[in-house]
Amino acid sequence: MSGTGGEGTVESPAVRRVARVILLDADDRVLLLHGHEPDDPDDTWWFTPGGGLEGDETREQAALRELAEETGITDVRLGPVLWQRYCSFPFAGRRWDQDEWYYLARTPGRAEAPGPQGLTELETRSVAGLRWWTCAELSAARETVYPTRLAELLRTLLDEGPPSAPVVLAPEIV
């Protein structure tokens, strides 16, 4: 993403366009992945499935592709964009600057995720598993979860339904 722009100059990295999925099952549990720094398995966090757009795919296509690759789940109904945010964080020895769109998706029944089906080499070194979370479990969690307000955002979503237009979240810079 970053490269040299000429003798002795370095271009700033481009902002990565990302599609993420808030996947809910019939019990309104949300599916999160358990990630960690590739070279430090003790530096952990939970995050929503999703990733960067590839080629000329749309965000909707990227959301469904990433969900299938990271969880093995393909039987979903993709809903509206719930939230948008800018985030910047260090990971795997570099800084990632991302413009993230969070899509609502539902899976029928009480789903069990088959597990990753197409992780990249970096994802293989940094994803430790996945888990369904209730809103109450998220609210009580002492572990790091991204986005950091996910428990509050999920509670509002479950109480009020999807917003009429995407909500722009405050930037998260880690």
Detailed description of the structure:
Strands 3, 6, 7, 8, 11 and 12 form a six-stranded mixed beta sheet that branches. A four-stranded mixed beta sheet has the order 9-4-5-10. With 174 residues, the chain is α/β, with parallel strands linked by helices. The chain contains four helices and twelve strands; from the N terminus they run ββββββαββαβαβαββ. The protein has helices at 59-71, 121-126, 135-140, 150-160, and strands at residues 4-6, 9-10, 16-24, 30-37, 40-47, 50-52, 77-91, 94-106, 127-133, 145-146, 167-168, 172-173. A hairpin with a 2-residue loop joins β4 and β5 (40-47). It is globular and about 40 Å long.
Sum up the structure in keywords.
single chain; 174 residues; disordered N terminus; alpha/beta; four-stranded mixed β-sheet; six-stranded mixed β-sheet
Short description:
This protein is α/β, with parallel strands linked by helices.
List the helices and strands and how they pair.
Blueprint: E1 4-6, E2 9-10, E3 16-24, E4 30-37, E5 40-47, E6 50-52, H1 59-71, E7 77-91, E8 94-106, H2 121-126, E9 127-133, H3 135-140, E10 145-146, H4 150-160, E11 167-168, E12 172-173
Parallel strand pairs: 3-8, 5-10, 7-11, 7-12
Antiparallel strand pairs: 1-2, 3-6, 4-5, 4-9, 7-8
